[in-house]
From TrEMBL:
Organism for this UniProt entry: Skeletonema marinoi
EC numbers on record: 2.7.7.19
Name assigned to this protein: polynucleotide adenylyltransferase
The protein's required cofactors: Mn(2+); Mg(2+)
Entry GO MF terms: ATP binding; metal ion binding; poly(A) RNA polymerase activity; RNA binding
Domain Poly(A) polymerase central, residue spans: 246-380
Coiled coil (UniProt feature): none
Residues in Poly(A) polymerase RNA-binding domain copies: 406-463
Amino acid composition bias (Basic residues), ranges on this chain: 571-580
Any one cellular-component term (Gene Ontology): nucleus
Pfam families (alphabetical): PAP_central, PAP_NTPase, PAP_RNA-bind
Length: 833
């Protein structure tokens, strides 16, 4: 069992322990060590360290600055009238923080320094402000503005400015943390001022002791917090030399990755150097024995999966009871912090206070991308035959992780903020103030009040003026200008209208943020301008893409084509088009099939017609051939008819008929008999009697119906005309009247005979109209009247009481109530069938 790993550290007289337990304390396996060799090759070629000459230059500059600072402290002590011993012991120390203090040693990196002075030195002594020069130093042509710019020649700021190796000197006295920025022998220096509540600063001054913060002001507290945090981080990761070197290696890699991906700027809402140091130190506490390649992969995994807003902390905050505010997760002010990262030194504070929801979205996307790249490299490397061997040995396979961001081709819309000033010094101070407020424009104004899917501020400045040509700017303003770009993507679902108006947000930013700058001189301005992705100036692509804007647009098209969402939409569109084409082909096939069937039917009809015509021609030919035979047959029939007529004459003569009729007269009588004109003598007499008088209309209609064989029922006549026709509903009464009922076998045999008989064709149709209006009723199968709800008759099987205007009786329509005094004519429904 391996020995337990102790990550505690003692610093400033206090023992510090990690806030989180170790996740995996095992050493990296051999395959990860081999994978790390490829990373080492990449680091040696692409992440170089500061040269020996550069390191010596930095050390030499720091020594000169320390000497100059101590001389300045002695001059202030002497000016205060202190004794020689007090002046000699006043001291004054220069401390470093940040990447230089940790030993990252990146070429061209700045050095964060803090001068710690005793209480006899003030901020006015440090900056030399408020100095009134003697009259002899005022020239006749000097005005009031020039006198205000003169600083105390004995101040540290003026001593540094007058040094021959110093350039680009910029004092920022009005900031929350006063600072001097300058270049000393080409090395950028940020010098902070810290005034202790003590009469002297000895050489063995322990800045890590919490008691140094007793009685200091807010700016001194923040200035001292820099070296105190750096020293505590170094102590927590410095258990062994190998572990500390692993920490430095990963810090250098993460810093390079953050700068390439546009994530390195604390004041613009991303991570700064201190934040990266804390994040890598936390991962090292979780995996203390991992090699750099493994630790880098774990770094992206940890922060890809981190549950924000849970704070990132190396050690639990403690209170030294000096009255300074300590970060507490349960305070109301901390509830709104998006991604807190707590400094380990007292007083604990959130070092990522500027991170907003929008910038956290960008950070999380980049963490996920970094993890995907490194994890894929590791898995492909394990397979052995996927990656190019030369790229593995040279470390080129790691270049994908550090590729520059595609910020300028990732958004459809961009907003430029061009910051101009009347002079170089004014432009530098004005730009510093505006840049520190840009994150509020992005997060508070644009990000919260506009329907945007995503918004990103690019943290790198461009020394160019991209304002409108119509802007009234002087040549000095255009020369002393810098530009920042903001990319954004509109959420069309939340959009109201077709245009996005950002004028109000820009006005509020100028009114509530930029107006705080003092002194605001004429010529200081911020000029916004919107661009489409294809309208961006060429300066945006020069340092990122080898082919400039043309190469950037080609890569943009390639990324668009490779977008999974676009590919899916394209495939769906292609599939829909294919389905539409298949449906058209199917429909065309069906139409073709129908056309073929129609052609076949036409051909069949033609064949049938031809066959029918052929049969007709054949039949006509047969008729022509058999014409002679027909003549012979007719002759034979005439002979047979003559013989028959002769036999009938003999029968007539033998019957003793008084009146002898010729054949022609007998034929006429036969035809009349068939037509019903020849009746018995009684009928002839009745008919003759009836024809002697003129028939009434009712009699004529009755005779017409009777001749048609219809059943007539009237009030004064119950005779059934055409009684030989039995209605279907009367079959039951027929059997009941004594008609012999057929046996089932006989009935079945009779039905089969009836079915075998051919169905007679109806050749004649008769239509007639009635002049008399009948009350039409319907009868059911039993012959009972179906009540239609009329007012003349109400069927009822029993007397239910007196009803006015009606009488209860058994009448022609059945038993029920009949209207008094009205006759009811009920024609048979047979007449309407």
């Amino acid at each position: 069992m391996p020995p337990p790993i102790d990550l505690t550290a003692t610093i400033g007289g206090r023992k510090v322990t990690p806030a989180l337990p170790i996740v995996d304390g095992s050493s990296s396996p051999p395959n990860e060590l081999k994978f790390n060799a490829s990373l080492s090759s990449f680091i040696s070629q692409n992440v170089p360290l500061e040269s020996v000459e550069g390191i010596r230059t930095r050390e030499r500059v720091l020594v000169k600055m320390g000497t100059l600072s101590r001389e300045w402290v002695k001059s202030v002590a002497a000016k205060r009238g202190l004794s020689a011993d007090a002046v000699a012991s006043a001291g004054g120390e220069l401390f470093t923080s940040g990447s230089y203090r940790l030993g990252v040693h990146e070429p061209g990196a700045d050095i964060d320094t803090i001068v710690v002075v005793p209480s006899i030195c003030t901020k006015e002594d440090f900056f030399g402000s408020g100095y009134v020069p003697p009259d002899s130093m005022v020239q006749d042509d000097d005005d009031e503005d020039v006198n205000n710019e003169i600083r105390d020649p004995d101040s540290l700021a003026e001593r540094i400015r007058r040094h021959p190796d110093v350039t680009n000197f910029i004092p920022v006295e009005g900031a929350a943390v006063p600072i001097l920025t300058f270049d000393w022998e080409g090395i950028n220096i940020d010098l902070l001022f810290a005034r202790l509540n003590a009469p002297s600063v000895p050489a063995n001054f322990d800045i890590d002791n919490d008691m140094v913060l007793s009685g200091v002001d807010s700016s001194t507290e923040k200035s001292l917090n820099g070296p105190r945090v750096t020293n505590l981080i170094a102590a927590l990761v410095g258990g062994t030399e190998e572990r500390y070197q692993t920490f430095l290696t990963v810090v250098r890699l993460v810093r390079k990755w953050a700068k390439a991906r546009g994530l390195y700027s604390n004041k613009l809402g991303y991570w700064g150097g201190v934040n990266i140091n804390i994040a890598v130190a936390l991962v090292l506490q979780l995996y203390p024995n991992a090699c750099p390649a493994s630790l880098l992969r774990k770094f992206f995994l940890v922060f890809k999966s981190w549950r924000w807003p849970n704070p990132v902390m190396l050690t639990k905050p403690h209170d030294a009871e000096l009255g300074l505010p300590v970060w507490n997760a349960f305070q109301a002010a901390t509830m709104r912090q998006v991604a807190p990262m707590i400094t380990p030194a007292y007083p604990a504070m959130n070092s990522t206070l500027s991170v907003s929801r929008q910038t956290l979205q960008i950070l999380h996307e980049e963490f996920a991308r970094g993890h995907n790249v490194v994890d894929k490299l590791y898995k492909d490397w394990q397979k052995g035959d996927v990656l190019d061997k030369e790229k593995v040995e040279s470390g080129e396979m790691w270049k994908e992780l550090f590729e520059p961001s595609d910020f300028f081709i990732s958004y459809p819309h961009y907003l430029s903020m061009c910051i101009v000033g009347p002079s170089q010094s004014d432009a530098q101070s004005w730009a510093g103030f505006v840049v520190s407020r840009l994150r509020k424009l992005v997060s508070d104004q644009l990000g919260r009040s506009l329907p945007l899917k995503k918004i990103q501020l690019w943290p790198k400045e461009f020394s160019a003026c991209v304002a409108e040509r119509s802007a009234l700017l002087t040549h000095a303003q255009r020369a002393n200008s810098i530009t920042y770009f903001i990319g954004f993507r509109v959420d069309t679902l939340r959009m109201r209208g077709s245009e996005l108006d950002i004028e109000r947000q820009l006005q509020n930013f100028s009114k509530f943020e930029l107006s705080r700058f003092h002194p605001l001189t004429p010529g200081m301005d911020v000029l916004p301008k919107t661009f489409g992705v294809k309208e961006l100036p060429k300066v945006c692509f020069e340092d990122v893409y080898e082919g400039g804007k043309v190469a950037a647009m080609k890569r943009r098209r390639m990324l668009i084509e490779a977008d999974p969402k676009r590919i899916e939409a394209k495939n769906k569109k292609k599939l829909a088009k294919l389905k539409k084409k298949m449906e058209a082909m199917k429909r065309k096939k069906e139409e073709s099939k129908a056309s073929e069937e129609k052609v076949e039917a036409d051909m069949k009809e033609e064949v049938d017609a031809e066959a029918q015509e052929s049969r007709k021609r054949k039949r006509d030919g047969d008729d022509a051939n058999g014409e002679d035979d027909n003549l012979d047959a007719e002759k034979e029939e005439e002979e047979e008819a003559a013989l028959l007529e002769s036999a009938l004459d003999k029968i007539q003569d033998s019957a003793g008929v008084v009146q002898h009729k010729t054949r022609e007269e007998a034929e006429i009588d036969r035809q009349k008999l068939l037509a019903g004109e020849l009746l018995h003598d009684e009928d002839v007499e009745v008919k003759t009697e009836k024809r002697d008088r003129k028939l009434t209309r009712e009699e004529m209609e009755k005779e017409m119906l009777a001749s048609s064989g219809l059943v007539i029922v009237s009030d004064d006549e119950a005779t059934i005309v055409g009684g030989n026709k039995i209605l279907p509903w009367r079959y039951g009464y027929k059997n009941a009247a004594g008609v012999k009922k057929e046996e089932p076998d006989q009935k079945k045999e009779k039905e089969e005979q009836e079915e075998s008989k051919p169905t007679p064709l109806i050749t004649n149709r008769v239509a007639f109209k009635f002049k008399t209006k009948f009350d039409v009723v319907e009868l059911d199968e039993s012959g009972k009247v179906i009540d239609k709800g009329d007012d003349d008759f109400t069927p009822s099987l029993k007397w239910t009481g007196r009803k006015g205007g009606f009488e209860f009786k058994l009448g022609e329509r059945g038993l029920g109530y009949y209207r008094t005094g009205k006759k009811v004519v009920i024609p048979s429904n047979m007449a309407y069938s």
